[in-house]
């Protein structure tokens, strides 16, 4: 079989071949084309296997004698890359072509590498062949730059990306990753099983009874379970990175919600460290009291022990996640032993001492007595629930270290839901057991036994031989209601319960100490709060947030030393609940937005159940502490407003974006069902700016009357060879739309490629917009260079005005004295910026090399610098000024630059003169009225000029004032011009005649044959017959300029009715002459002509 690079290798395979799937390796080497094989028979292939029995993507079978040809290409089932033969693109390895599905193709088969993000730690990103490369004709000789294959294989090819990614890959290679048990299950169980299990659960059962106690536990579990389900759905909807709750919320709802909850969630975890450590310290201090071994006093002892404990925990955390995970496992073992110790103690026969304290082992009478509630004064269901609920939290402990999990998508749902189940069973089991073994009140005195013959008060203890009736009248120290150490009393070995308390507090503190920096680091990496960027840096193979650890340590120490945690505790609990609420809402919002990208693998969820979970979390916040809930909402709202105002430059494809799209689509469709009404008319403009940055003044004046009220589309027409135009157009679309956003211009950018300018504008006029949001006004700049422009440009310019009128679209032509196009100025500025960057880079290189001693390369650099006459670096400001001066400041047309920004400035007190000469439906009046509503134009008053008869000036003035008052348009003055139709003075008419002279045919001065010949050769010229036929109109344009000079020379802006050139009657050059003479030597002018449909009404 012959392998070659001839053109026929790109043809489809022979039709006679009956195989459905074929894979043909094409050798690109020219040198080996003749030396491979002398076999002249056509190659024979067998069907490619895609079965599961092989790990190879393709399995190729060969006829005898052909396999040797492939040994150089296939090694261990994969293609071997060779330096001698490769091609820039390929379906699998980017180094050779495959004949796939029957023919040779550059087209790629689906691979995961194409869908990765650049810099992904899970593997390199590979760029598939672009549509252009597949669609365009294949080049015969494809040159591949050295290293280009590696560049394509490793990402987007940005400079320095490979080095950074390789470095990151090396760092991640030895990173410690946890599975679902060690990373999620253990952490969540330790965080959920807190001090509450050992100290307060017995009191809750005493107050609420077994029945309501189980309901309280169940209600808490409902909240956490719904949150866990929502979190599982979000986790399985794509790859989860580090950041836990912050990452899930921010990627679902966007940076506004994520940034606000991320900061308070990280802070809550940091303060939670202090709360758990103080709980541990209080237990130790109680033990010291019993042994009479106090160091100073209880408060200071708590501070001392707490500070030492936090330092030790910080050391464990900083040592690395592996050490921290080992510590967590040890603490879990201790905790499990303590819980088992309690259950064992319930079946060990009670002695007299324990009986006197209310423990009688399992008794049906005690169970029945304790089943119902017995709330003491000031307590109720919700107050008891508020005390217990914090014990059920902690379900985010595993998610908070999502960046350290092997497979977060699998680990977080499995570990979290199983942890909720196990801990719930344990809570309910302990509640039932303690309620069935211990009475509510006991005296602790072994002498309070019942002597035969005494009357029993009917209590369970009475039936078991003890009389605790005096507890009704005086406080007792034992029993469920009074003794917080019931579990220690019931257990088989009391010190194990103390060890369990130590384990619960320390494990929770350790989990929070790890969670806070991890979440905070993820938040800082996203650069939502730029002032916090310092804490984004990570260290070591696990990218440990050491700076975040120090900050968390400082916060924890501060609250330990303050020792006022009872006040801050409800706020922290509400911070966690706010996170739960937003996780539930994120799941609901993503489902409600109906984005095709919302495809969670975890199918056990429902959008309405998630919404119910969010509402339930918010309700629980108020149940726990209403003022803490209010504070939480205020802080979150403030941070939300701050992030929204700052508008971080991130795009995570949030459900907020998806819902915005759905809402916009629904609203656009709803608009189509309602007919347009004149009261709702607003200018919706197509602005022919070209690139929006090249004609800023034209865009600014249009934006002034469309901002927040109408549609504005900046349009550009690319004229030339279609291939080049489309490429240039596609490459600049995003950049130009980004320029509009950066400059806070509420407009869209649209572009078309066409054979001529007029065809492109015609396409835009017909196809732009959506439904009712279609343009109704065309805005163009005045063609200042019309006298020097080629004929085709004039025909296109006047032609688009005719086209707009044909499509019943209004036209606005804007003229300013300096013109609009500043593209040359932008080009010079770009060149200056490049030169300045090169100069600064060279100066930086020289400065760096000056610091190196004994470097051989420094001398060569100085020699190059001396040849370039580079002196020592000067201050940046002075050097930039010198550079500009040396570049001939005359190249900057200063007047043009100033003119391009004139509509950005606030217009001083003055007038907008409206020459409403022809009724076009009211657009000529509506546009200046809208301008006066804008902040920059509000100091300008409207002066209205209309034509009229000399003998009826007052009557017509009253009529116009009445009309304007009905339109509710405020005006400063009305002028009736009665001498519009008189002839202009001779000087003005002479200027007009000189203007049109180069474009006249003068056929009347020539014989008939010559005149006919000239008409055929130059049909665009102005004939004498045409000029005579429209002489009155020409007079009017010249006369109007005289009147404008007289009345509106000092106006800030002139809005003037645009004369209409009747098709086939007015030549293009004559029409341009009318526009020129009409607007010559005037302030900025808007020539406006509506589509002669009403845009104003006085009806309500």
TrEMBL record:
Stretches assigned to coiled coil: 825-852
Ranges of residues in domain Amino acid permease/ SLC12A: 183-686
Residue ranges occupied by any SLC12A transporter C-terminal domain in the UniProt entry: 695-1100
A cellular component term, taken from the record's GO annotations: apical plasma membrane
Region: Disordered, residue numbers: 31-50
Amino acid permease N-terminal domain span: 90-157
Membrane protein topology class: Multi-pass membrane protein
Keywords from the UniProt entry: Cell membrane, Chloride, Coiled coil, Glycoprotein, Ion transport, Membrane, Phosphoprotein, Potassium, Potassium transport, Sodium, Sodium transport, Symport, Transmembrane, Transmembrane helix, Transport
A GO biological-process term: sodium ion homeostasis
Localization of this protein: Cell membrane
InterPro entries: AA-permease/SLC12A_dom, AA_permease_N, SLC12_C, Slc12a1, SLC12A1/SLC12A2, SLC12A_fam
Protein's UniProt name: Solute carrier family 12 member 1
Reactions performed catalytically: K(+)(out) + 2 chloride(out) + Na(+)(out) = K(+)(in) + 2 chloride(in) + Na(+)(in)
Transmembrane segments: 184-203, 210-240, 260-281, 302-321, 327-348, 380-399, 419-439, 546-565, 571-592, 604-628
Lyase found in the keyword field: no
Gene that specifies this protein: SLC12A1
Protein source organism: Canis lupus familiaris
Listed GO MF terms: sodium:potassium:chloride symporter activity
Protein family per UniProt: Belongs to the SLC12A transporter family.
